[in-house]
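Weekly puzzle thread! Below is a chain. First person to post its structure in token form gets bragging rights.
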Amino acid sequence: MSLVVLGTVALDHVKTPSGTKKDMLGGSAAHFAMAARLFCDVHLAAVVGRDFPLKHLEFLERKGIDCSSVIISRDKTFRWRGEYKKEDLNTAVTLATELGALQSYVPELKEHQRHLPDVFLANIDPDLQMQLLRALKSPRLIGLDSMNLWITHKQKSLRRLMKKVHLFVANDGEARALSGENNLIMAARRLRAMGPGMIVIKKGEHGVLFYSGRLMFSFPAFPVERVVDPTGAGDTFAGGLMGYLSRAGRLDEKTLRKACVYATTVASFNVQGFGMARTASLSLHEVQERMKELVKFASLA
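Winning reply:
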């Protein structure tokens, strides 16, 4: 019931129709960890800069997240500035990106973390993802996420990595871009042929598609009336997914279906507040109560 996640820990400046927030705790690994910690022990591997508020690291640690492999660099923290338009809350418009400490980052793990059974390679340079993967002894379950930047500029590195992972998580745009297929079922088949046995395609407000060759299913998203900030929803989904799979310790059909429903439910909380305002206060009981509503909503009975 332990996993390690590699990714970014960032300072986000976000503008949505609901308002503007500056220097929020964000990043792929941070959002992932905040969701996964509901199900299992989480070890975070990332880098931050000398300008990173220590209160954020203390906050993560208070939530039970092991930050002993978070490096504090002399460079500045990775920063992202983005905006969501009222007419399309599914797509972020990137206004500025400052890589800072990410440019010289080399992932490091404590010796005991190298033996952890499960790992998730959250969105970050695929060469860094490969470095961390090579540091692990014999992981049982390896999950991977990426983004269009790496699909466009580092696809060879990404494809080499995909041959070594068990689970690949992508949004619908990324799945189409990497596979070259417009139809998502065809895209999932093409992605699976690249190496991962399990493909999970996030479709935002339209739910999720799971494909493993022998098994395929889809679930709708939880109906959220007011979306405040979608930033990190995909990473939150991945955290719920991997966290539950790590907790369950098996990959049968029932477990995979339940993991996707849990992930969808946790992600629905994320969009209801800026940054981690909603996910940081979540309890597993609260998630389970909403999950019952989602199952009822999707049921044909």
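Puzzle host: Confirmed. Bonus trivia for everyone else. The mean pLDDT is 95.
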